[in-house]
Amino acid sequence: xxxxxxxxxxxxxxxxxxxxxxxxxxxxxxxxxxxxxxxxxxxxxxxxxxxxxxxxxxxxxxxxxxxxxxxxxxxxxxxxxxxxxxxxxxxxxxxxxxxxxxxxxxxxxxxxxxxxxxxxxxxxxxxxxxxxxxxxxxxxxxxxxxxxxxxxxxxxxxxxxxxxxxxxxxxxxxxxxxxxxxxxxxxxxxxxxxxxxxxxxxxxxxxxxxxxxxxxxxxxxxxxxxxxxxxxxxxxxxxxxxxxxxxxxxxxxxxxxxxxxxxxxxxxxxxxxxxxxxxxxxxxxxxxxxxxxxxxxxxxxxxxxxxxxxxxxxxxxxxxxxxxxxxxxxxxxxxxxxxxxxxxxxxxxxxxxxxxxxxxxxxxxxxxxxxxxxxxxxxxxxxxxxxxxxxxxxxxxxxxxxxxxxxxxxxx
Length: 412
Fold this sequence. Notes:
- This protein is of the alpha/beta class.
- The chain has 3 domains: 9-176 and 229-313, Alpha-Beta Barrel (TIM Barrel); 178-216, no CATH class; 326-407, Translation factors (Elongation Factor Tu (Ef-tu), domain 3, Beta Barrel), CATH 2.40.30.10.
- 26% of the residues lie in helices and 22% in strands.
- It has 10 helices and 21 strands.
- The chain has helices at residues 17-25, 49-61, 79-92, 102-111, 128-136, 150-159, 182-187, 239-244, 259-278, 287-295; strands spanning 9-13, 30-34, 65-69, 96-99, 117-119, 139-143, 163-170, 206-207, 215-216, 232-234, 249-252, 301-302, 326-334, 341-346, 350-351, 355-359, 366-369, 372-374, 383-384, 389-393, 403-407.
- The strands form 4 sheets. It has an 8-stranded parallel barrel, surrounded by 6 helices. Strands 17-16-21-13-14-20-18 form a 7-stranded antiparallel sheet.
- Helix 1 (17-25) packs parallel to helix 9, helix 3 packs across helix 4 (102-111) and helix 5 packs across helix 6.
- It starts with 8 loop residues before the first strand and ends in a 5-residue tail after the last strand.
């Protein structure tokens, strides 16, 4: 049995190379990502094999671990290609491979025996005997089933030698450990092969057979009915409880989310984890953490199944999505040669004179103002369009990968 005194790991999603850079900048200890095939987020950018090699090199240079997802439930036609992919991973040498399919696990043990195996939440590990089974087969870490309480996770941790990983924040699938067939039936896209079109988020109404065209309301708001919608997970107030339950890696969901979402969640949970270890048992939630998490796009927050509160696991029937309180404007590319100029990549239109704030990797956001915008020819211009790279003059100096945003005038 294990008794680890290691600091809990903060595990962040990296859907593409830019998101990898952002996760590293804002303080992730490890990232999870995928190749172009064989993961459950095939609709995100993902990485070619060459890019995976570059990603592992960049992460390791910065002391960050890399876990590569190969967690589909494979079909017969996938077998040869999966073996080839595993051989490529043997050359790339990530820190672990995330697997759910026992057949892929068996292949990985043969082809890449020196690379640790992490078991995906898709494998639906709900008890300590199942965890012991996977441990016997050589699994190093298990991402426990989403439907477990912290008490159940604690018992699994106490009775097994494997590491325990669990989600701390992000979207939750309405189906049992994510094993859903709804997308396959309704759109011909298999969620277990990484092609889910999220029909659980679509709008629905009820129509009685003899009254065609008469749609009956269920419980709805002015946006429609969302009968399957699960609320988003947010455990910022319960980080100590998760650590004390024996969880050794806190995982943020969101390989397909924006870099603004990624920066916000990684920074907040980085500060929360560090505060826990520095507080010597006197952990206090910083109100700014919840404030920041409320500003990014999300559904109603809940604690999921962790606290044995049935109300927390009910679908969201009040609102669909809380819109972000900020518009993401630009990413800092280079600090620049002088104290108040920096090169940026524009994501939403910016103007001279407008008030912005800079979201840094540590400390509070900094309010500032765009004093000048300079194009590639060195000319001052009144505004810059999305996709352009310009130099801006601000009142302060900032770091590469810091994000520039402006408050929205109207917040829904």
